[in-house]
Design brief:
3 helices
């Protein structure tokens, strides 16, 4: 078992997870699935929450800065906000 991980490895792992969530959000946007859709709620609530915990762990370990973590999460939240606007639901 490895005892250390590089900053680059952490950023790559977070980027891959963010891309997966973004792909799910984009799929919902393409389908114009409203926020009441169970699949949308799964992505918006569970996936984003879990991802924010990953980012928080990376910050706590000193592998990324607070600013970097906020930027990663903010990008996903912006996509989510765009979906609400597209669907006509200001959140």
């Amino acid at each position: 078992m490895r005892e250390s991980v590089s900053r680059e490895e952490v950023l790559n792992a977070l980027a891959k997870d963010a891309e997966k969530i973004q792909a799910l959000l984009d799929k919902q946007r393409n389908l114009l699935c409203l926020s009441q859709c169970p699949a949308f709620e799964e992505v918006a609530d569970t996936q984003l929450y879990g991802f924010s915990k990953e980012v928080h762990l990376a910050q706590s370990c000193g592998l990324i800065s607070g600013k970097e973590g906020q930027e990663i999460i903010k990008n996903l939240e912006h996509i989510l906000s765009d979906i609400y606007v597209t669907a006509g639901e200001d959140k």
